[in-house]
Specification:
The chain is mainly beta and about 220 residues long. The protein is built from one helix and twelve strands; from the N terminus they run H-E-E-E-E-E-E-E-E-E-E-E-E. The longest helix is centred in the first third of the chain and has 14 residues. The two termini are about 30 Å apart.
Length: about 220
């Protein structure tokens, strides 16, 4: 699942080496994604988690930022029998559509004050995946899971936000937005995956830009 990969990435970033002459900070957010352009014709909203790590010069305005995010943009659950000969025994099959971003780039910021605005630009990768999991009725026990389809595309964009430090000044409220533009990418949406009646699945991927505006609200720790 992309959320697990995101948490692993952020753990590596937090444990990475930091230059003694630089200041390291990190944070996490809840995000709501609003699709734009052709992507909006198929997807109304996405929701998930994001995180970042930032290295900046002491008392400087320039830093280097690494971001990761994972959001769910479609989900459906079907109640299906284990087999045609066992129609009285059924499982819940949940199919989720995910989009994940990993990107890096420069950030300009106001390093002090009660309200600290920032802007950034970035480039990286967008990863789209459709996964299915089967769980036992009434027990939420995972029986099986698989990735039905995935694809990757180059992405880039820009963002802006503000940090409002709390009393300690090392912990701050962080609110912002960013525009993520993906190149032409193949992806599935809710309802695109169909059982073929022979133990397999069929689908026709959609192809085109999948641009997104992410609105974020969370906390940052450090500078």
């Amino acid at each position: 699942m992309p959320v697990r990969s995101l948490l692993a990435l952020l753990a590596l970033l937090a444990a990475g080496p930091a230059d003694a002459a630089s200041i390291f900070s990190y944070g996490g957010d809840l995000l709501v994604g609003s699709p734009t352009g052709a992507f909006r014709d198929y997807v109304s909203v996405a929701g998930g988690l994001s995180g970042f790590a930032l290295w900046a010069a002491p008392r400087g305005f320039l830093g280097f930022r690494v971001d990761g995010s994972s959001a769910l943009y479609g989900s459906e659950t079907l109640h299906v029998p284990v087999a045609r000969q066992l129609s009285r025994i059924s499982v819940d099959v949940t199919t989720d559509n995910w989009i994940a971003h990993v990107a890096a780039g420069p950030q300009l910021m106001v390093p002090s004050g009660r309200v600290r605005p920032y802007v950034n630009a970035f480039a990286g990768l967008s990863y789209f995946s459709t996964t299915s999991e089967a769980t036992a009725d009434y027990q939420a026990v995972l029986l099986a899971g698989s990735t039905n389809y995935d694809s990757t595309a180059f992405s880039w964009g820009a963002g802006a936000g503000i940090r409002v430090p709390f009393g300690s000044r090392r912990v701050a409220l962080d609110a912002g937005a960013r525009y993520v533009r993906s190149g032409r990418v193949s992806y599935l949406i809710k309802g695109d995956l169909h059982d073929d009646g022979h133990g397999g699945v069929s689908f026709t991927p959609r192809r085109g830009p999948a641009d997104l505006v992410e609105f974020r609200l969370g906390v940052s720790i450090g500078r």
